[in-house]
Design brief:
Length: 50
Amino acid sequence: MKTALAYAEAALEEVQRDTDKLHSRELRDAIAKYIEAQRKQIKALRRMIN
């Protein structure tokens, strides 16, 4: 499970890098909010595991 969370975090970082290349500011902002929500969920899962 810890490995899966690490992969999820890496995937979010990759999406963030790709998002920075988008021209639409509104789309970048929406994706950034989604990524932040997912990061919070990953942190919550890490706390539950430990």
